[in-house]
Every structure is written in C-alpha cells, then in structure tokens.
Specification:
Length: 122
C-alpha cells in the first residue's frame, strides 16, 4: 500500500534529495551510509503505511505501531555497526524527530516524543 498522506509523501521526496526532516541529517553526514539510511527511511514509510491502514484511534494505538518500527531500527543498529557506523547521538535525534514528524502528520501532535521510540536500544 503506497503512502497517501501528502505531508509524508512530500517529506519522502525531500528526504531522497537529502534536505528533509526525515533523516535528512543522516543523509548529509558521510558517517551514515546512504543505503543504510534508506533502510531507515523504509522503516518510517512502513510505519506511515500501517498508520494509514490501521488508523490508530488514540495515542496508545499509535505507540503500539511505533514500538514495532522502533524494533526495526533496533535491528538496523548492528547493520550500521558492521559498516563502521552506529546509531549514536546524531542518529538518535534524527530518528526520534522523524517519528515525531510522522506522528504530527497524522494528527498526533500531542504524542510524547520519548514514548514514540520508547522501545529503542540505541
């Protein structure tokens, strides 16, 4: 299912040209391999697809979806490390901001940024 939310779709295009709120800081930093950042962007886009298909009714339901996406980022951490990178301070901030942006795009402006990525191991 393609992402249909216009705000998110526009962010996706911008991210691909490395000038976006969706992991843009990671794309512009050579420390993070673009092909791995692409995998992170794919996690975020799958989150968007799930939000659109499941339509969470409240923050509790949204947090359940973001927990799954956060676990996917947890799995990516070892992949980054294998390529001489890691999900460190810059990455943590970029990923957390991206989750918050996605939540806001879907009307969850009052989401707690920490709860959105509560399951993180990075």
């Amino acid at each position: 299912m393609p992402v249909t939310n216009e705000k998110v779709a526009n962010e996706r295009v911008a991210a691909l040209v490395a000038d976006s709120a969706l992991l843009g800081g990671m794309y512009t930093d050579a420390y993070f391999p673009d092909h791995l950042v692409d995998r992170g962007l794919a996690v975020l886009l799958r989150l968007c697809e799930r939000i659109e298909s499941e339509r969470p009714a409240d923050l509790t339901a949204l947090y359940a979806l973001t927990a799954v996406a956060t676990e996917e980022f947890n799995d990516l951490e070892s992949v980054f490390e294998a390529e001489g990178s890691e999900l460190e301070t810059v990455a943590r901030e970029e990923i957390s901001e991206a989750f918050f942006l996605v939540a806001g795009c879907y009307g969850f402006e009052d989401a707690d940024p920490e709860r959105l990525v509560e399951a993180r191991e990075w």
